[in-house]
Design brief:
- This protein is about 25% helix and about 35% strand.
- By secondary structure, it is α/β, with parallel strands linked by helices.
- The protein has a six-stranded mixed sheet with strand order 1-8-7-4-2-3, covered by helices on one side.
- A hairpin with a 5-residue loop joins strand 7 and strand 8.
- The chain is elongated and about 60 Å long.
- The two termini are about 20 Å apart.
Amino acid sequence: MLLTVLLSACTNTKDIEVETASDPKVNLSAYSTYAWLGSAEILNDPEGKWQPAKFDISSDIKFLIDSELRDSGLTEVADADAEVAISFFTGVDMAAQELKADPETDVEIPENVPKAALIVVALDIKTGFVIWIGVATGNVNENSTVAEKKARIAYAVKKMFNPRFYDSWFK
């Protein structure tokens, strides 16, 4: 964990934006158990420029979310005993375009800026309704190291579950 903190201090995370929302009618702190619903990945990389090298991103994300949920006082249990189902989705779009100002002419021109997103969803198992959602988006740094990629993902997950940032998530 200390290594993650040190790496994230050295890693540029200014482009990462995190938003969360919860159902205002739901008392999130009333939940104490969760189970995993699953995960999904979407990769739009027609030229094969970005591949998650040397690590399983889904496993890392699941580990980080598990850690945050445990720190929040939740316990992972079998599906049949859970109150909350947790799921996440990741997406990478290497063909994303963004308008950038040409420094010489100040004219905005389209430029390839690969984007990535992580969405974490919590569902009330009894009702099937979404009770909380977190979304992190950021640029894909194609030349970053595995350690830098891991640090950026850890930063996004940590910020999603930061009690000063989200609305009354758990305890």
